[in-house]
Amino acid sequence: MPCGRTLSGKGIGLAKDVVETFEELKLGKKLACVVYDFSDDKRHIVVEKKVEKSAEKTPEEQYDEFIQGLPLNQCRYAIYDFTYDLPNGEGTRNKIVFFSWSPDDAPVRNKMLCASSKDSLRRSLTGVAAEIQGTDFAEIAYDVVLQRFAGKQTT
Known about the structure:
Layout: E1 3-6, E2 13-15, H1 17-28, E3 31-38, E4 44-52, H2 59-68, E5 76-85, E6 92-101, H3 108-124, E7 130-134, H4 142-150
Parallel strand pairs: 2-4, 6-7
Antiparallel strand pairs: 1-2, 3-4, 3-5, 5-6
C-alpha cells in the first residue's frame, strides 16, 4: 500500500488517497462524507468509504445515514460536510467536521491506536471547521453538531 505520509511516533502512515479524498470532499462539494479506518496490518490509515451527497434527502436524513454507518464496536475517523439552515430563512451553510469515533465497546488496542494517531491525521486535513469526539451516538447526534454551529437553532 503506498503511503503518502508517516504520522509521528507510532509509525502509522496515511494511505496516499486519505488527503486526496479529503480535498475532493472539500473542493468538489459532491461528497457528503469520507470514513477512514486502519489497514488490516494497522500500519496505515485508509479510506474505508466515500458517500456522495443526495439531492433526494434532507441534510438531517443524510447525516443520520452517515451515523448509522458507523460501527458499534470499532473506532473510525470521518470527515463530514455538515449542512444546516440559518434561522429566519437566511440561507444554508456548510461546515467541514472531523469526527473521531471511539465507541465504549471498541477493543482497548483499537482505542489506543485511534487516540495516538488522531492529532497527526487531523493536522493533515486543513480546512476543518470543528472536531467532534464521540463514544456513543448521543454525542454525535445531528442536533449536537448543529448546536456547535448554529447556537440554539433547530431544523
